[in-house]
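Researcher: Batch entry, complex prediction.
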Amino acid sequence: MTFSANHRLALLSAAVAAALIAALCLGAQDYPPSVLLSALRAYDPDDPAQAIVIEMRLPRALAAVIVGAALAVSGLLMQALARNPLADPGLTGVNAGAALAVVGGLWTFGALSQGAVAALALSGAGAAALVVRALAGAGDSTLRLPLAGAAFASLCMALVALVVLLNPEARNIYRFWMVGSLSLATGAQLMGLAPVALAGIALGLMAARRIEALMLGAELGAALGLHPGRVMTLGLVAVALTAGASVAIAGPVGFIGLIAPHLARLVLPGAGLATTLVLACPVGAGIALLADTAGRWLARPAELPLGIVLAMIGAPAFMALVRRMLREAR
Amino acid sequence: MRHLLLFILTLALAALALAVGRNWLAPADLLQMLAAGPEGAGRMIWSLRLPRLLVGLIAGAAFGLAGSVFQTLLRNPLASPDVIGVSQTAALGAVLALLTGLPVTLGAWVGGISAVVLLGWLAFHPRHGLDPRAMVLQGLALAILAGAATEVLILRAGDGMAGLAMTWLSGTLNGAGWPEVRRALWLLPLLLPLLLAGRALDRLELGDDLARALGLRVGLLRTALGLCAALTAAGAVSLCGPLGFVALAAGPVARLVARGRPSPLAAALTGAAFVTLADILCRAIASAALLPTGLYTALIGAPVLILAVRRQARRDSL
Amino acid sequence: MPFNVRDLHLHLGQTPILQGISFDLPKRGITGIIGTNGCGKTTLLRALSGILPPRRGQVLHEGCDIGRLSPGDRARRIAMLPQNALAPPGLTVRQLVARGRTPWLRPFLPMSAADHAAVDLAMAAVGLTDLAPRPVDSLSGGQRQRAWIALVLAQECGTILLDEPLNFLDLPHQAELLHLLRDLGRSRSIVMILHDLTIAARVCDHMLALRAGRLVAAGPAADVLVAEPLRATFGIGFDCGILPDSGKPVILPGAL
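Model: Structure tokens for the complex:
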């Protein structure tokens, strides 16, 4: 079946809207959309149904949207910078750096507040991105970047394993953080971290054109007036901001950064990097919303963490998709 | 020749591994103990250190080989058995076994084989054989799936079990005795074709068309080597946990030794040397806490890989 | 004079590649660079484009030291097509050619009508207008090369540097491209590396001959493309003749 571009965009919008409504209405208790409508028209804080929808699910849905969009954008940028469809924002070491910072904090200070964990995660992510950038070296570092990132990430994770093995309390807290969940973030943290994510997305949009030109090769890029090292740094800062904000909100969540870019390109194949970046936001947001809702609904009254749901449902779906594409090719 | 130097280095590390531990041995004592045989005076060497060394050497060579072959076949320096999910699925099997009281090695082996079978089925194109891009994409998804399942198991487990599981997941040679060596020997028939594939891999790097023009059966070669490497990786993980970093790092280091050409022999030696060195540090340093070997492979491997990257950076700028 | 080069020394790492090169190039016309493999032709081109800074010496473009210009300014004056450019998979011809407008685009604004016109003009000049929406990887080698040329044309610079642009082109397409370059050479300066001396003799106005990083001959084509300078450049003898009917030159290695 072939859909026109307009059809596909409409489909995407409808899907995201449906995901949002589902996120607000479904969960440990299902509420009909009418509850949502009345809450939006005239919010009555004493109505328990409305209270849950507005005060608990709405912030959480917002967190899902931010995390999903941020991860999708960071994945897209990373794949463009590394010229490698395998590239994942984790290759900049952000997740590993965040984990190390969090675990280091737990080891030093014992128990930590949610806010402290988020702050540590963000700074760890940022520091890691800087280190990896420096390690990859100047000039055309496209091929060296993922290797440097992988090496640094492994180093960090080894140190994390070290701390976790020696310190049972840290281990217990880390076990829950490492899976990735949207229940970790409070409203205050969201307010603080959302601008970081947005800044990263905006930076990515600004740098998109230059990153695209860089994909032609460092030499031609330089001949077209770019400074390859600077463009790469700019792109990496954008990745660090988006991926860092996301890991600070929800812990290390995989899969979206890897898959959402490919899906976004399916919506408008052949679109430029900037357009695909804009598309990646709703795609990522939709995936995150669906996964989080599924986690809250399928295991109710308990919940499955976001990272687990993404892996359990998303991965097989993706595998089926790739298999279908393989069969259809040539 | 550089390969010879690498071989001598590996031998030296092996000897050192036998000498180091809670009791450090002088060379004369070491030789005496080796000569004394498994009973009596030589017991420490023969029943503890020697089997551990052998398992480490074989597993390290296996990881190094699997990693470098994947990197060449998939034309991607990031490719390693980790990336295509074999390590994670083997790990899942191992953790499952650990938590249900079954032998860990069996669990890992079953997990690894399942991954290979699944990937083979998912990535197989009726006409072109194993499609490397599909294998990688499917493998990534599989890695995420298996990783998440493992995390769930660790989440649900009690604290003691969680600690054990996480230790195994870091990669460890603890408890490697002669039964493990026997199991490791089963890996050798898999390693042989990979070791001999140096010339084929070199030609494959020229591109499929030119390789075919040079007489290679590209589709068959890809499928055979890919399966072999995946099974090797699965076997290696079942021996000592996912030392995936060895697989990632051995390839670039081996290329440095072999002046840029793919060299399975160098990769095997690098992997073996790597694991042995890590184990030496493991037993020499924190002999009380006995931290897992896998930590050391990452702690020394990461800087090595980073140095290799910097070296490449300088070469690129010429 | 678009290019004045004074005592250019260029090193890659510690290795000296270009030594003591000085020449002047005219404002218009086609300049060919010839020399054996590895003699530094590509490095010289990179130095002219400003990508590689010299260890010693100066490269002046229309009186300005290009080392002092910003990359954007340089890119608006001098265009270069290297040998090893990569086309990201899935890119269409039009999108590839549009990349050539990069130095002219304003920071956040989309491409203007003028930009689009430049892209259309460039594609028409190389005859790829019909193939504009096709992905670059689906084109033949020759078509792809023309797409890269169009990218450089879209950059609309007064000076164009080309590193072996005739590779992969069949003879009719080579002829077409050379016609195009000759037309362009009336209003701009084109510097290109090439191997075919007959073509050089027929198309180039000016020649630079390199050997082992040094300039062994520089000047009008008629002065450089004769026996002695060629022997000094390549180390072998050449037959330089004129075709009886057309009066056009032919140059081939004497040993053939």
